[in-house]
Amino acid sequence: MASGDSVKKLSEELSCPICLEYFKEPVSLSCGHNFCQSCLDQCWEEKEASCPQCREKVQERDIRPNRQLANVVEIVKELGSQKAEEKGRVCQKHQEPLKLFCKDHEAPICVVCDKAKEHENHKMIPLDEASKEYKDQIWNFLETLKKEKEKILAYKAETAQESQDLLEKTQREKDKTVAAFRRMHQFLEEQERNLLTKMEEVEKEISAKGEEHLARLSKELSSLSKFIHKMEEKHQQPASELLQVRPILSPWVLRQ
């Protein structure tokens, strides 16, 4: 009990009065009190520079890092860690070393627990043997996981290869389609050019025949106009001369 009080008192002496935790970068004031550097800075942001414990005014030049106190804190922390580790290897109930493993409860126990009623007729094995069995189970499980990993990697590689093959096949089909449409486009362009050429030839032929026909009609129209003019002149002549026009009219009457 005295040992526990001493440890508690030591922990209090190594704790900052502001944050109540182990000192971090401890500094000493001229009054002799110690604080964490960060706690002191935060405290002085809101108040004047004075000791948070005794209220004595402090000059910044009077603040000194306490490296010895920092070293003591680190030593106590290490001792606490070692004690915690040792505590984990002993029975919390009987403070005896854990040497056995209860398979029914699946928990390590000490030799005193083995005699207890709660472990009566339970199957016990040495802790080292249980540890070996557990390690073997872990190893077997790891082997299973590794095999499963290899299967997944193989499947992944196979899937990636199938995907690559499919992409390449799709690209080949795409190239074929593009080439086919290009050939079709070239064929249609040639057909378009040939058809346009033929249509131009037909247009020229129609235009030539039309011009020829118009020329012939113009010629006939000119002849007819001259004949009409001549007939108009004859129409004004006396009856004896007018009758002489009949032979001239015969060809035109026959054409009608």
Q: Which secondary-structure class do the elements indicate?
A: mainly alpha
The average pLDDT value, as a whole number, equals 81
CATH superfamily of the domain at 1-80: Zinc/RING finger domain, C3HC4 (zinc finger)
How can the largest sheet be summarized? 3 strands, antiparallel
Strand content: 5-15%
Based on CA inertia axes, which overall geometry fits? elongated
Number of helices: 7
What report would you give on this structure?
Keywords: Coiled coil, Metal-binding, Zinc, Zinc-finger. One of its GO terms (molecular function) is ubiquitin protein ligase activity. Residues 86-127 form the B box-type domain. This protein has 256 residues and is mainly α. Among the domains are: 1-80, Herpes Virus-1 (2-Layer Sandwich); 152-231. The protein is built from seven helices and six strands; from the N terminus they run αββαβαββαβααα. The strands form two sheets. It has a three-stranded antiparallel β-sheet with strand order 2-1-3. The longest helix has 109 residues, at 127-235. The radius of gyration is 61 Å and the shape is elongated. The N and C termini lie far apart (154 Å).
